Structure formats: C-alpha cells, structure tokens
Automatic annotation (TrEMBL):
Annotated keywords: DNA-binding, Repressor, Transcription, Transcription regulation
GO MF annotation list: DNA-binding transcription factor activity; sequence-specific DNA binding
Domain HTH araC/xylS-type per the UniProt entry, residue ranges: 160-257
Protein name in the entry: AraC family transcriptional regulator
Domain of life (superkingdom): Bacteria
SUPFAM superfamilies, per the entry: Homeodomain-like, RmlC-like cupins
Length: 268
C-alpha cells in the first residue's frame, strides 16, 4: 500500500510502527508547505526526489536539494519547509538500527538507495518485502557521503536574530557594522561572535545562506535571473560567479549533475 500523506497526519504515528525502517511519500500541493517544529522517537531521513526542502534544527538550517537527503537523529527538534510541488519521502529509522551520525547532516543518495526508498514507500510496514527492502536500505545508507550544505547557527540570541532576519529577507545587504548596531554590539565583537558560534566569517556565513536559498528556489523551478535578483545581486554574472566559486560549477550544471548522478555533484 503506497503511503501518500499530506500534513497533518491525523491517524498515523510513525513512532508506533516497529519496523526497523519505513518510508512514506509526502504530497506537496502547488503552495509552499511548512511542517512546524516537532520530533520523533525514530531518526528521520528527509529525501527530495523533486523540488527542495529546508530543514531547521537547533544548530542550523539544512538544505535538501533533489536527489539528496538530510539525516535528522532520533528525538532532535526540527521543522521542514518544502517548495511548491515538491516530491518528498520521509524515511523513519529505529534508533540503533544503522550506524548513522548522531548529528544532523546532508547525505548524497545513490541511484540504488533512491529506488529502495521509492519501493519501500510502496509496501506496508508488516509486509515481508518491506522488511527485506528496509534491511538493504539500512546497510546502504551509512555508506553515503556526507555533504556540506547547511547554515550553522546557535542558540546565541543575537546571532539567531540575525539568522532569522536574513532567512526572511535574504536580499538584505546590510553591512556587518549595521547588523552590529542593531544587536547592540561593536563591529569587532559581532565578527568574533559569528566566528565563535559558526566557524565562518560573517561574509562567508551570509554567502552560505544565499547558497541554501538559491538551490531551494532553483530546484523549485525559479530562473537564475529571478534568484539572482531575489538575493540582491547587482548582476546575474555576479551571482553565477559566487555560486561557481562556492560549489565548483554554475547553477544549471550543478542541478543537472545532481539529477544525473544521484547527489554526487556536491563539492564539500
């Protein structure tokens, strides 16, 4: 039985299913969909076959472009925002059933694993075939490469305030000095705080946010020109140059390689 669901799920609690691994397909309508903050006893893999998903956890924002997945460990608070018409699968895994990281991370998804997830979503959890597919999935998933496509944030209130403002208005080009004034810090103190909490300079941190937003919107069908304008770049060329320097290839090539190679287009 294919488990195609729409949020909220009134009669389905994944934590009550004892199978080592189950998968459900989530249908997203023509509008952007947000799943509010929640957690599961099981670990969760958020996999996008089409469109894109942004996951938010206490330590940062994580982007799920097509043919990649974000691993969310057991009991970690998180929320998900899916682009319009996204094709998403949630894979729920019993704690300890596979040797997976104890932190949130983006994973490449191989063509074999992709097909396993799709097939697993087609069968009932108590079906013997479901158990067989789940065990192969649990053997393959820990082998997937970890990719670096997230925006680190922290519980530090001033930094979180800036992160939320930039996520809401990514085209905001306020300088470090202007942000420092808004959060009642000196420019040098804010610069040190960003490095301490994220490991990145302010400029690199904001660029990482732009990459996350850009990939999400491009995956949803937006043009390079539209994304460039939405992010406040003076020209399309400037945006493409930033993208190529950060990820090794221009936007169109990057997304086509993801689709062809099952997520292996990332540059760590």
């Amino acid at each position: 039985m294919r488990q195609a669901l729409r949020w909220p799920w009134p009669d389905f609690d994944v934590d009550n299913v004892l199978a080592p691994a189950i998968a459900v397909r989530v249908d997203v309508t023509g509008n952007r969909t947000e799943v509010p903050e929640h957690w599961h006893r099981k670990g969760q893999l958020v996999f996008a076959l089409g469109g894109g998903v942004t996951c938010r956890v206490p330590s940062g924002f994580w982007m799920v472009p097509p043919h990649c997945g974000v691993w969310i460990p057991s009991r970690m608070e998180h929320s998900n925002i899916a682009t319009a018409n996204a094709w998403i699968f949630f894979v729920y895994i019993e704690p300890g059933a596979a040797e997976l990281p104890d932190r949130c991370c983006t994973l490449s998804i191989s063509p074999l694993l992709r097909e396993l997830i799709i097939e697993l979503s087609d069968c009932a959890p108590d079906d013997a075939r479901c158990d067989f597919l789940g065990r192969i999935l649990l053997a393959e998933l820990p082998l997937m490469p970890v990719q670096q496509l997230h925006l680190p944030i922290s519980s530090e209130p001033r930094l979180r305030r800036i992160a939320e403002a930039l996520a809401e208005s990514p085209a905001d080009r306020s300088t470090l000095a202007e942000w420092a004034s808004r959060v009642a810090l000196s420019e040098s103190s804010l610069a040190r705080l960003v490095v301490k909490e994220t490991g990145l300079s302010f400029g690199r941190w904001r660029q990482q946010l732009h990459l996350i937003v850009a990939i999400r919107e491009l995956a949803a069908g937006a043009s390079v020109q539209q994304v460039s304008a939405d992010l406040g770049y003076e020209s399309v060329t400037a945006f493409i140059t930033m993208f190529r320097k950060a990820l090794g290839k221009p936007p169109a090539k990057y997304l086509s390689d993801i689709a062809q190679n099952g997520g292996s287009a990332f540059v760590a």
